[in-house]
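User: tokens in, sequence out, please.
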């Protein structure tokens, strides 16, 4: 019987550690919610009203796990930080109701949506996709995942980021325009969600640029913290 073989060995499965456990969470896709805090929508020049959410993606191998440095990317002079709550799904599906959306959540983490803002801005002006600004290598630093079984499902709590010890971002999860169950439900009407999907849920105001040598330190109260050096 013929046994199919790959042309070359597949790359390793992207994964995140699970806090307190000797297990890994295999990552399938990374979805990101755009402008999900009113104050951030305003600082980016947009109406903060409750318009339908929109999404973009990063690649699973864009993850940067705990303890690794963030390499300043090529083709840019304006790399921005965006501190976010990350939702990790253990179950997938389509047309998931808001009522049952949290049943699909395995746990939560804290992450950074690193952005080549200059390239994103050029893409916006030309009406082109954002991938060159959002989906580059190491553009998704992320902490270990904390299981919901241990902490529940947070609906409020400070989200913050310091750069070189100076606070740059501070908000609260209760300021999200689209809450986590609503986000999961809406996203599931656009894609068939799968176990292993991550959702970066948006950032509060205060986003800004970093330079080589900067230290980023942020977190979400009750979930965890992340510390990343720019090199």
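Assistant: Sequence out:
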């Amino acid at each position: 019987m013929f046994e199919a073989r790959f042309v070359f060995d597949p790359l390793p499965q992207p994964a995140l550690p699970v806090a307190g456990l000797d297990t890994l969470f295999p990552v399938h896709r990374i979805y990101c919610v755009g402008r999900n805090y009113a104050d951030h929508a305003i600082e980016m020049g947009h109406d903060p009203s409750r318009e339908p959410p929109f999404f973009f993606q990063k690649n699973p191998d864009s993850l940067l796990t705990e303890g690794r440095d963030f390499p300043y990317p090529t083709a840019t002079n304006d790399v921005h930080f965006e501190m976010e709550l990350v939702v990790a799904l253990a179950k997938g599906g389509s047309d998931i109701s808001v009522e049952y959306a949290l049943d699909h959540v395995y746990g939560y983490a804290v992450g950074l949506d690193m952005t080549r803002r200059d390239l994103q801005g050029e893409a916006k002006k030309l009406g082109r996709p954002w991938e060159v600004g959002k989906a580059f290598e190491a553009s998704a630093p992320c902490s270990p995942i904390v299981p919901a079984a241990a902490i529940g499902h947070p609906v409020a709590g400070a989200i913050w980021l310091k750069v070189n010890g100076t606070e740059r971002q501070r908000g609260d999860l209760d300021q999200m325009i689209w809450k986590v169950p609503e986000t999961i439900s809406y996203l599931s009407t656009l894609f068939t969600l799968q176990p292993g999907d991550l959702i970066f849920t948006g950032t509060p105001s205060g986003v800004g640029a970093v330079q080589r040598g900067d230290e980023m330190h942020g977190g979400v109260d009750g979930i965890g913290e992340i510390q990343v050096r720019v090199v």
